[in-house]
Design a protein that fits this description.
The chain is an alpha/beta fold. The chain is built from ten helices and twelve strands. Residues about 315 have low confidence and may be disordered. The structure holds S-adenosylmethionine (SAM) and iron/sulfur cluster.
């Protein structure tokens, strides 16, 4: 089998698929309160078009998929996309990144359609603070959402926390303690200076080394291999006898570009070879003209940047993660 290999020799087997650029939250590190210039509906790939792209890329070794956005659960009938992806031979793993608002309602139907697992974003366990960070009061309760995912058999459940100094870093220990009794993997993510950054700054970044030091006040953390079926750059630890684990994702203080195995498909059908930088390939135009796209991806991957340069960048100017399928 031919395998997608990028210009730095990395094997690409993981595709993140954004199904919408819209969101029902306005997280202060991701979207301005007034929202963004949304894509016109005609420019958004249909579920059939997304499935066709995956069908063409799977023979090149793309076997792991993540559905993301924007907020994927606000796009109607997402279970229809999941079932179309599930039947593509060779697709081994379908996961979802969500803010969790609609998860209690949809977890079971998504699992029934073939979704394997879920990453839930939750930056606080307190209702008033969730509303302040997401600038919306939608009644999101991270524990209820994680339990709904667990009940539906979506496993492993990962909870992603973007840590911001002075905003939610006083909840680090509360989040870490969840792993003592629940088989959940709580992952702390370093804040990245992307999007508009009107309300958060470099001063809000909590370096992971400091974070682990603070979490260690609960008990000794032992490095573990982490949940099965992980694709990504997280490093995992656990407390003795804990049901789950604590993970850290360190885009700022320790880069992991040398093991990058992923590319992103934007909601409007562009393949982004790196989260950062501007390299995008238009797949929608050839797809809608009935032409194959796999060879465009193969050639384009030779241009995938070897690493990102976030640390050298000034704040601002980069597209928000919601626009490129974070
Ligand atoms: N709406 C879904 C969600 O929130 O999980 C999926 C899309 S969201 C862009 C994907 C992930 O990117 C979330 O876990 C979010 O916290 C993270 N994210 C967005 N902007 C970020 C930033 N500036 N720094 C670190 N993580 C960020
Ligand atoms: Fe929406 Fe996710 Fe961005 Fe928050 S991080 S605004 S939930 S897309």
């Amino acid at each position: 089998m031919t395998q997608l290999i990028d210009g730095s020799g990395r094997k690409i087997n993981y595709l993140r698929i954004s199904v919408t650029d819209k969101c029902n939250f306005r997280c202060l590190y991701c979207m301005p309160e007034e929202g963004l210039q949304w894509l016109p509906k005609s420019e958004i790939l249909s579920y059939e078009e997304i499935a066709e792209i995956v069908r063409q890329l799977q023979p090149l070794g793309v076997t792991r998929l993540r559905i993301t956005g924007g907020e994927p659960l606000i796009r109607p009938n997402l279970d229809r996309l999941i079932s179309q992806l599930k039947v593509i031979p060779g697709v081994e793993d379908i996961s979802l990144s969500t803010n969790g608002v609609h998860l209690p309602k949809l977890a079971q139907s998504l699992a029934d359609a073939g979704l394997n697992r879920v990453n839930l974003s939750a930056d606080s366990l307190r209702a008033d603070r969730i509303a302040a960070i997401s600038r919306r009061s939608l009644g999101f309760d991270p524990i209820v959402a994680a339990m709904a995912a667990e009940r539906a058999g979506l496993s492993p459940v990962k909870i992603n926390v973007v840590v911001m100094r002075g905003i939610n870093d006083d909840e680090i220990l509360d989040f870490a303690r969840l792993t003592l009794d629940h088989p959940w993997h709580v992952r702390f993510i370093e804040l990245m200076p992307v999007g508009e950054m009107r309300d958060v700054t470099w001063d809000h970044v909590v370096p992971t080394d400091e974070l682990l030091d603070r979490v260690s006040s609960i008990g000794t953390l032992t490095p573990v291999s982490g949940p099965a079926r992980g694709n990504g750059p997280a490093k995992y630890f656990s407390f003795a006898g804990a049901a789950g684990s604590v993970g850290v994702i360190t885009p700022m203080t320790h880069t992991y570009c040398d093991t990058c195995n992923k590319v992103r498909l934007t909601a409007d059908g562009r393949l982004r070879t790196c989260l950062f930088g501007d390299h995008e390939l238009d797949l929608r135009t050839p797809l809608r003209a009935g032409e194959p796209v796999a060879h465009i991806v193969e050639a384009g991957l030779l241009e995938k940047p070897a690493e990102h340069h976030l640390l050298q960048m000034q704040v601002g100017g980069l597209r928000a993660l919601s626009q490129i399928g974070g």
